Every structure is written in structure tokens, then in C-alpha cells.
Amino acid sequence: MTEPTIYEMSVAGRVGMKYPQPDVPLSPLPDDMLRRDLPLPELSELEVVRHFTNLSSKNYSIDGGFYPLGSCTMKYNPKVNEETARIPGFTGTHPLQPIETVQGNLILMYELQNWLAEISGFSAVTLQPAAGAHGEYVGVMIIRAYHRDRGDLKRTKILIPDSAHGTNPATSAMSGYNVVPVPSDARGNVDLEALRTLCTDEIAGLMLTNPNTVGLFDENVLEVINIVHQAGGLVYGDGANFNAVLGIVRPGDLGFDVMHFNLHKTFSTPHGGGGPGSGPVGVVEHLVEFLPGPLVDVIKEGDADDYPLFGFVEPPKSIGRVKSFYGQFGMHVRAYTYISMHGAAGLRAVSEHAVLNANYLLSRVRGKYKLPYDRICMHEFVVEGSWDDAPDIRALDVSKRLMDYNFHPPTNYFPLIVHEALMIEPTETESKQTLDQFADALLKIAEEAHTQPDLLKSAPHNTPIGRLDEVKAAKELVLCCWIPEDIE
Amino acid sequence: MFYPHTESERAEMLRSIGVQSIEDLFVDVPEKYRFPKLDLPPSLTEMEAVTLMQELANENYSTHDLICFLGAGAYNHYVPAVVDNLIRRGEFLTAYTPYQPEVSQGTLQAIFEYQSIIAALTGMDVSNASHYDGATAAAEAVVMAYHNFRGKRGKYIISPSLNPQFRQVINTYLSGYDNVSVAGPDELDPMSSPDELEQFIDMDTAMVIVQYPDFLGRIYDYAQLANKTHALGTLFAVVVNPLALALLKPPGEFGADVVVGEGQPLGIPMMYGGPYLGIFATKKEYVRKMAGRLVGETVDEQGKRGYVLTLTAREQHIRREKATSNICTNQGLIALASAIYVSLVGKQGLRQVAELCYHKAHYAAQKISQIEGYSLCCNAPYFHEFIVCCPKPVEEINAHLLEHQILGGYDLGKNFPSLDHHMLLAFTEMNSRDDIDLLCDVLAEVAND
Question: Domain of B114: which CATH number?
């Protein structure tokens, strides 16, 4: 059923929330500055609760089912995180309180900075970036600041593999760089010959996702990094796929210079229907001075009687602030809880099982779906959602048909280097039974593509709504509950 | 910890893959660096982790222990029980970005309603689905202006009474572009009137950015400044506190082209600075130039109303280096929280909250102005924050207030040398008359110390 909007449900004069009468004398309001009309909805509390509960029932979610979205790491979001992030001693702290009154927050952030540095092999970490793309932005601005600080102004280009997320080129452009694509070779690695040719003294660096977006660990990663370093460039690590390598390998050890983390992927903070995320950034020793401030540090050493005092420090050559305050603190609390419950062995087991699950699923569908690169994969893999002998079927049809089997579709049409790509990331929190059910559905759909293609073309059939007219949406642009001309 | 595999399942899966052990799956990782020993504390059970987190929280003093008069960009408001209750539903909390609309109508319609609420509050035509926070939304407004003029206008005029952290973030974002400059803050006293900004506007100016109410709490009618700005073809951006807009004329009425702001006052806990909500609204003509996700209404094959992400060709996953921004993940769940908050408190409630803040602040101002040694530093009407000139360093006064479980105001001397000894105090519906009277008593006591 179509759920009405809050504006359609609104009844003039309805009150959802009562507030106390003022306990102070009233002061005159600034008449000439008051608004004449406040076009907001008027609903009862129950109407609000029912409306949003009904809306929520139209969503697919991890809590409700398997969500194998490649590159998104839709793992289980532990409920305990939601409890710890709501402890009143955290939620009720104002970001500008004197540091002496928020030592708990500062210890938490200090330790999280150190833990992330330890897990990744970097010297220092900033927690300020709000999401992955924001972290990328910080990383590339640090690369820029590094070259400029050395008086090296001729470096105007950033190399980006053709398999990269769209945020990489968009970030580079925002940071004032020209983007130069690097091709992949037949095994899904960075093409070393092409890389050597492109590595001139005009490149500021390379943005590398490893494992990459086809789910493969670059077999030549040390050589790739070496080539870039030889040319005077720095290597940025996109941490979107970090869930594959916790306790397996540290990007800092491999020679990466800077990397962002996605706390909302690897460290289990919920995706929230699009955010908030959190995108801390780690750097090697010679880039620490460029980090955005402030960082949390010990500002007065402790002794036998007193704890150390934690506070904020500004890196001397900071690229500047990128966000108000200190980052998505609520996400820091969740990630801290998650790491503290895992320890070193637990984190390694996370990645081992993520990779085990992906390879198992791959072994189940091999032969029925075309594999652009048939190697041992890491935490995800890519198949083609099309067949030569089923010419009408596209990856989108496979995706939509999966909904009929009560699964969320994989990421489709990404990465761009794979024809009709379906990118599948099961994560470590799924059981063998779930993987088997999903594999069975994929195999069934592969069969249907050949025997009953219309079933795929007309899918989904069991969702709250059918395929939507995206052209109409973009053409008519109805972006709020009324047409703008109707206001007034 | 959260992986369900049994020993026999692992063995069966490895057999299916065709390898001997899990280690065999990592042969592509350089052997020298494979399986590093990580130096992390031993793992905790859930029970132990909860205790640890509670102990950390106990090291804080929060507004549950303290009376809060601190604002300056984050405010202590009441969050009704309904808000957190609804956003904790797993169907909202553990969903991804609604790229597959058939199974994401809940998130999509909620964002559509959020966009409607923000458009209504700001008096603009369209709102996007959110930015990281108010400061990054302001920076994205500046980037939009840069692209609007294709980089040919390089000057940005920032009001000296804009939140200093917003200004810092704008400066960082602008540092990625060549031939741009920022005018305003260094040349002017933060107390100056907005009309003073007019002298800086010229044909090279891409955008003028002001705050409403400004960082110092003041309410200005920017109509004249907006007119002068538009006369030179320059864009006019207004940074708002959305709660104040329940009371005050929306910026759409005095000529704003872009309205951005920090949405935290709309039902979001202070949470030590985040996650918050970046509001971004603009006029129809700039909709294709704005950054961020947008939800639009459409129909399915049966003609049934539904919602999809639209105009995605502006975004990084389609346009890559030509996108309007690199933003991908935004503040979806926080936008949802604010939409629930506004739906619940509604038209009357939001106005009531705004008025409570206003009256409490004005009562406090009147009382503080009578304390010997203190004076108000208000040269314009104000909303729920105002400046007090203090007889002693603000830090000293705040230390004394803290002894009485009071979180004092913001020390303006930190950002504005001319406002040394000046404190910015904030008042909300959470402050009772008794709280305010206690504040005044302690302020009087410090002055006489």
C-alpha cells in the first residue's frame, strides 16, 4: 500500500509533543523579523510512530536478510554498539567542554587512533573525516601539501586505476589534480608497463584500492608501490576493502603512504540508509605533520599519583580543518567497542572468514556465471550478469530477480571494467546455510535467464513496489511534498 | 566473534574451494608481510566491553551532571523518546544507501520528507539528502559557487561573524583551487554590521556568506546585503540554525541563493560533536549544480507512487572527476532523525521550542546586565545566544562555574582577539529559571572574588 507523506497526513491544529509553559517572563519578539507562516506537518505521536514504522517495513536491511553488496561490507552491526554509543556519559557531552571534563572521550579517541595505526601499520591516524570520500579528500590534500612543502610544484597529476571507485577521481579533481587513468592487466592487477610509462615527475601519486574492486589482491603490489615511489610520487590506499586484510597484512608495511578507513564497513558501524559513516586517515611518519587538526594526544604526562592528561594538538603543517569538532564521535564509540571485543586474533579471524565466505560462494557459482578473472579472490568477487545465449538479459535483471528470492542484489554495473558486472561481497558474518541459499538462487536465476527470460525482465514481483520510472523522476523533478511554485 | 562457522563447515567450504587451509587463500599477499602480529589489548566479551565503555563514560562530566550554557555551534536540546526509538529500528539502521529503490522505499520516502521539511524551514525550492555537518555543507556551497562561475570569479566574502570552524573548513576546501581568495574576516571587527561587507563585493566575487543568527547570536535582516550581492551577479549564501527558522523569517524571503546549516538542534544529541547533520538547500535553478544525493518522486509500471535517487549524473559514481563533489556516504540516519523530530514536535512545537529558547535567553540577559562587573555586548536583536563582557578572563570564570556544576559559555577571545574577556552564553528549553538564577548568582560571586 502507498504510505501517505507526513504532509498528506497532517491535520491543522494537531499536536504531537507538548512543552512546558515558559517559567520566565516573556520578552517582546523582534516583530519585523518574524516569519508569517511555518509550513510544517501537524501529527499526533502515534501517527508519527506508525508512519515511520510503516516506512521502515518497506526497507531491506541486514537485520532482515542477506545483503551481498560488493564494496559495501554489509556485515552484521552488533547491537551492543548501539548500547555503548548511547551511554549518557557520551551522548550528553558538548564538543567544546574543557578537556578536563571529557577525559573519557579523549582516552577513547586516543586509543582508537593508536589501534587503527597498529592495525594498518601507519604512524598516526586522524579521526576527523566523516566518511570514506571525506577521508580520501584528506589523504589527497596531504599528498598535495607534502609536495608543495618540498617546493615541488610541477606534480599536477594523480594516477587512478580504471577499476577504482568514482570517489577517487572526484576527490582528486576537488583537490586540484588532473586524473590519469591506469589500465588493469589480464589478471586484474595494475598494468605494470603502463604504470611505468605514466610515472613521470609530474605525478603526485597513485590512488590504489587493494584488494581492488574486482576483489583481487594485486600480485605485484610491492612493485607497483616501488614504481610510484621511484618517480617521487606517494601512494594512497583506499581502505574500502580493508575487511579483507585485518591481521593479514598491514598497508603501511607494504609501503602505502596514506590510507583511509571506513569504520562503517570494516569496523561494523551501521550504514543507516546512507550514513553516517566515519573515515579516519592513517599516514606514515613523514606525513604526520600535515594531518588535519586537532589530534588527540597526551598533553601532560602522568605519574604515580595522576593519570596523564589528554587533550588536543595541532600538527605543525596541517592541511587545515575539514569538519566541525573531532569527527563522528558516535561512530568512534561503536568502532572502539567492536575492536575491543575482537583483539588481534579476532580481527584476523574476521578477514579470514570474509575471504573464506567469498571464495566458497565463488566456488558454488563458477561455471554458471562468467568470471572475468578466475583467481582466488579476497573478500568479494565479480561475475558477469549476462550470457551470450540469453541475449536479452542484463545484470540489472538478475539483480531485480534476486529480490523475488528475498535477497538484496549485489552491486551492479561496477567496476566499470567488467561487462554487466555483479559484484558480490558476502562478509564474514553470514553462515554457510545463507550462502548456500543465495548460491541456489543465483543458479536458479541463471537457468531462468535461459528458460523464462520474461521472469527476469519483469522482476521484481514480490516487493512493495515495482521497477520505477527513473526518467520521469529526473525530468519532472518533484523533490518535495509540493511543487515549489505552490508555496505561498 | 560474529562469524558463525563451525569447524566442520569450514572444512566443507575449503573442500569446495579446493584448498587445504584458510592460509592458502592469502598466497597473493607478499609472504614477508603476511600475518603480522598486532599489538592490541586482549579481546573482551560483551559483558566486559560494556563495563569498559561505562568506565570510560564515567570519566566524563556530561550535561546529565552539569547545567549547560555552552553553545557556539552545538546545543543542548530535548530529544523526544520517539526519535531514537524509531531510528534504532534495524530496517532503517542497517540498510544501505537506497540504490535499489524497490527494496528501499522506506529510506527514500523518509529522505523525501526530510527534503520537504528543510525546504519549508529555509524557504528554498529544494534540499538535498544531507552533508556531513554544517561546516562541510558551507564548504560545498562555496565549491558550488566556484563551479557556477567556472572558476572565473575567485573571490569569496565571508562574514567575520561566521562560525570560526566553518570558516576554517571553507578555507581548507578552497585551498584545492587556484586563483581564489577569501575576503572579510581579517579586515573587519566581528561586531561590525553586515552592511560593512558591501565594500568588498565586486565583479570578481563568486559568493557572499553570512550566518543567521550569526555566531555571536545576532539576528540581522540581510535583505539589503542580498540585493547588493545580486546586483553584481554574485551568489548569496546564508548559514542557519534551523531551529531559529521556526521563529524567524526564512532566508528564502530575503534573497538567499543557498541556505546551509548545522541540523544538530533538530533532535540530534550533542555526542561530543558528531554525527551531526549538514543542511543544504537552494533554488531550483541551481539544482543541477548542487552536490549530494537527491530523492525524487515517480511511479512504477502500475502507476503507483514511489521514490528514487535522482539527478545522479551529478554524482561521483557516474561523473567521476567531473562530479559536483566527491560526496558518497552522507548523514542519512541523522537526516531521518531530524525528519522524525520535526514531524513529532510539528508546526506548533517547533515554534514553542524556539520561543522558549528566546525568552530564557532574554530573561538571562536582563538579569546578567544587572550584575556588577558584567555588561551585555549586544548591538542587534539576538535569538538564544548573546555576548557578555566579563570582569575577568573567561577561563577563570568558567572554572568557577564548573565548581557549581555549571558548564559556562564559550570564550570568544580564542577566535577574536578583540573579544578577549567576552563570553558567548547559550540558552535552550533545557534551562530552567532556577538554573539561570544560579548562573547569575555564581557570576556575581566570581566578580566579587
Answer: 3.40.640.10
